[in-house]
Amino acid sequence: xxxxxxxxxxxxxxxxxxxxxxxxxxxxxxxxxxxxxxxxxxxxxxxxxxxxxxxxxxxxxxxxxxxxxxxxxxxxxxxxxxxxxxxxxxxxxxxxxxxxxxxxxxxxxxxxxxxxxxxxxxxxxxxxxxxxxxxxxxxxxxxxxxxxxxxxxxxxxxxxxxxxxxxxxxxxxxxxxxxxxxxxxxxxxxxxxxxxxxxxxxxxxxxxxxxxxxxxxxxxxxxxxxxxxxxxxxxxxxxxxxxxxxxxxxxxxxxxxxxxxxxxxxxxxxxxxxxxxxxxxxxxxxxxxxxxxxxxxxxxxxxxxxxxxxxxxxxx
Length: 316
Ligand code: 6CS
Prior knowledge:
By secondary structure, this protein is α/β, with parallel strands linked by helices.
């Protein structure tokens, strides 16, 4: 049998690394009876279209990033809020694979004919522009491309920017044609999509991680023989630490590639500079709760709680 696995990212990306390793492990342990076919971004459609295909069972597996998926499941928009996740990868990894977090999301995915398999950090979101973005004033009327979900747009409105949602595939030409002044993505993506070629400065505010979720067609997942379902979950568990190490390496290496090429500066915000953004971002939590209701509020509070606990545990 063939399991079709669609990516929201191109070949050589973090999602591709994940899918190739998933494929390798699954095929090896099913003695070639399962063939995992990986479709990089562009082969089947935009992120939202991939989600629709998984819902209808047209594909078995897909990545579905909250920045797009929150159109359909507003509660996942929590992962697009700024200054919620920890600054420590280890804490995020722990919290994002916590059963308490999954059990809040799973019914929401299920009611959309999806099965949530994993929540995966792909690195710090970095702003790209033709100038450093150090202050809220720098964001004034700045046309920043965002992913398509409404809650994400609110995060940038709160900074005084002019957010412009569009699919990933249109960002490069948007920058070239001047339809947008900048965009935000993890460094590996800025490199492989060549966004940096059109931009002079990358600003890192460590305001959010780029999070994606791995989702399956619910109908397919539930119809799998028990032993195959277990195998999928086992490989999923094995890849938690594996992909985290990979994404860290990808982001470090690609930053070096960009800097080596010249013409792009890398700016890191100070704690004081970050504080102004943190304060401006707090009100968006209320908008998130308005849009996602009680479950959304419970999810946000659970995440904040677990992060606090995990961070306290780290200091011991
Ligand atoms: O910005 C986007 O739309 C996309 N960025 C990444 C890093 N992955 C998928 C997502 O659709």
